[in-house]
Amino acid sequence: MARAVTPRRKALNTLIAWAIGLMIFFPILWTILTSFKSEAQAINDPPLFLFFDWTIENYGVVQDRSDYMRYLWNSVIIAGGSTLLGVVVAVPAAWSMAFVPSKRTKDILLWMLSTKMLPAVGVLYPIYLLFIELGLLDTRTGLVIVLMLINLPIIVWMLYTYFKEIPVDILEAARMDGATLRGEILHVLMPMAVPGIASTILLSLILAWNEAFWTLNLTAAKAGPLTAFIASYSSPEGLFFAKLSAASTMAIAPILILGWFSQKQLVRGLTFGAVK
Amino acid sequence: MGRIVLDQVSKSFGDVEVIPPLELLIEDGEFAVFVGPSGCGKSTLLRLIAGLEDVTGGKIEIDGQEMTSVPPAKRGLAMVFQSYALYPHMSVRKNIAFPLRMAGLDKEEQQRRVAHAASVLNLSDYLERRPGQLSGGQRQRVAIGRAIVREPAAFLFDEPLSNLDAALRVGMRLEISELHERLGTTMIYVTHDQVEAMTMADKIVVLNAGNIEQVGSPLELYREPRNLFVAGFIGSPRMNLIEGKEAARHDAHAIGIRPEHIAVSGSEGNWSGVVGVSEHLGSDTFFHVHDTGVAETITVRADGEVGFRHGDRVYLAPRQDAIHRFDAKGLRI
Question: Which ipTM score applies to this complex?
């Protein structure tokens, strides 16, 4: 029996949903609003919500003081590079786990995921030392490699669940039709898994873009992405809230816009298998 | 061109032997049907020939060449799957052209062959559609189209008709038989439906638990089943199998008599019994006769006009020359 929904109940539900949504969004909204205030108004007590002297001065100062474009470019290269590399490694890995599983496949999958439960700081020292040894410290190459490895378990796991949904018959048909392994993956598997691969790429981009622990610890001046850009505004000699907010807004804007345009894809990706 | 030889081929999954070593020869141009109950290893045998499974032992020879460890793509075979296995993201045209594209044929030749296959299979009007927009029968035709454009040494069919409804199945059965006549290419067809096997095959291979029980033409299998399994499996309705005193009278452990070889009347016959369920097909009627004293139920095929009712006492007269005799091991005497 379908549950009857009265208009009043519907209105109440809508209200609650909006309230929760706003609550989740509020920190971001507050950051954006603060970025348009002067430093004095930013720390005003009581806090000013909408009625203050709107200014874009902070953005100008931030751009003058630090080169936003350089950080942005670093972020694009690091997030994009690690994602691309991750997918190139993960597609064959997920293929073999989904279609030629061994007795240990399930264990390997779990083991891979379990590495995500390890606190990152636990391996900071060895990785830091390795980076010094290999000359990768404060290089984009180094970060691409580290972030790729950090996100690889999630990428493999996601692709694996997508590939599992593809009937083996179709891949066998491709094999009978004369496709090589490469042809089978490139012409049949990947096109069929496009929605899955797209949401995997999107998630990996977001994770890499927002990753702060490794990017802050392994970079200095040259290879720092936008996370380092934000961090550079929180200094020991005191915080400039308005400027910090402007920097944060500039840092999250690209990924926020990307997320906005692809939210449908993303939701499908994250709930895949649960609701279909 | 498409002569296929299996020499001591066997297959195990882990410790479980699903196909003990077996020998089989399929002549060029032959329509061979693998038939047997589900789980008898018929699909596995087909997949071994296709190369989709590796053999555990033995050799596979296709067209005079040893192909045992050659990958499926290089064996020159085409396969039609039970699920059709069409590429959902490609149009019908691209589906059919896919094997040609993989073989690196030039565009013009691809188009020419696709157009030809489409006209043979009545698909010309659907070439730009996606598989999702086609009916079951049309999808099956696309799958066959994808197989014939390659001009393979042999076609492998894995229960291709089991997803279709009954009427369509009969139609497609005829189409595949006609295709075989026209192309003259070797075909291996796997089914659990003995009617499909009888109507289509030049050669039937009856499988049971991975063993080949008998190989022969449909009529050979019908007339001279080599053992009790084949006797019971081939023919519809099933052969009546009788053990005990009645069998001993014929110097056998068991005897078999087909329903169509028993005359039924209200007055005379060797056995008598009571009519149970009658199945009226119009042209024929099948009577299931109980309490005969020789077997629990004897099935009899009679003319459609014969009108016995539930509970009537009838007399049965088996044709003496049509009685099959089997020994204690189930082998034909």
Answer: 0.84
